[in-house]
Write a structure and sequence with these properties.
The chain is an alpha/beta fold. Helices cover 43% and strands 20% of the residues. It has 2 domains: 121 residues, 3-Layer(aba) Sandwich (Rossmann fold), CATH 3.40.50; 95 residues, Arc Repressor Mutant, subunit A (Orthogonal Bundle). Strand 1, helix 1 and strand 2 form a beta-alpha-beta unit. The longest helix is centred in the middle third of the chain and has 19 residues.
Amino acid sequence: MNILLVEDDDRAAEFLSKGLAELGHTVQHAADGDAGLAAATAGSFDAIVLDRMLPKLDGLEVVRRLRAQGAAVPVLILSALDEVDERIQGLRAGGDDYLTKPYHLEELTARLEALVRRHGEATAPARLTVADLELDARNRRVSRAGRKIELTAREFQLLEFLMRHARQVVTRTMILEGVWDYHFDPKTNVIDVHISRLRQAIDKGFERPLLHTVRGAGYTLTEEP
């Protein structure tokens, strides 16, 4: 991810920048609200980590001005203020998430990944097609060859994930993180159960199967045999 960090505490900024860089992310640092707003306006970032209390321009005012300009980049607000009213103010100003100090780097990173993932889903195409299988993400409808298919909420999430990665092999880890938001394997058969149900729903009664198991690798949704 390409991340803009707006933080006036030099030690905190150095710690966070180094930690994110070690995880493979690119970090640009701005030390006050004015510089942060200018960088966010001029650059292209996957996410912004924004301190609540900043010199020159308060963090809430930074995010308000960004939203007024039409910027949709995900913003994670950091603050030592953990009262409910403070969190509500941050979210209502346009922040996407709010994390209080002190924080763990792992949690901050996981929250950023979730924000970027949700942002990508929100801007992704609403209608997906693989062969004669169609999914309408906005209206949560699925059909194949014109026949409506009923799915549970989790089955729908799983199918949407597979269709957004159509013709690619997706691993169990990718599915766990993308559908269940797990960052570890809970050692259950939850994926196998849902894949089996989904296969019954979208392939049973049709001549050509679309959902395939790739032995030792994962699964793929494709019209190719």
